[in-house]
Amino acid sequence: MTILSSTESARRADEGKDEVIFIASPYLKYLAGGLKVAVFLSLFFIASATQAANPLDVVINEIAWMGTVNLANDEWIELYNNAESPISL
User: Which domain of life does this protein belong to (predicted)?
Assistant: First the structure.
């Protein structure tokens, strides 16, 4: 999975490609613990073997940890890449 930078995301949006990344509810149960989710996810954001990722490059934009009004089991996390280049998860 790759989260694209805002610049790359805008370019791809012009091509009609959606760049919002979701973690679907079947996988969300492995990320329990409220704000601990952010800490758990941050362990996976490494730009490369030689370059450490800036902790502010990828942020959790939105969390639906209790589901939505339409579906209680519709749990997801929206991630946003604040960097200038794609980041591989």
Answer: Bacteria
Tens digit of each residue's pLDDT (9 = 90 or more) over 5-27: 555 555 665 565 544 444 444 54
Residues 6+ apart with CB under 8 A from 30: none
Strand stretches in 1-89, DSSP E: 2-3, 21-22, 58-64, 76-81, 87-88
Domain ranges of the chain: 2-88
Name, in order, each residue with C-beta under 8 angstroms of 6's C-beta and a sequence gap of 6 or more.
Answer: 80, 81, 82
Enter the pTM of the model: 0.40
CA separation for the pair 16, 46 (Å, rounded): 28
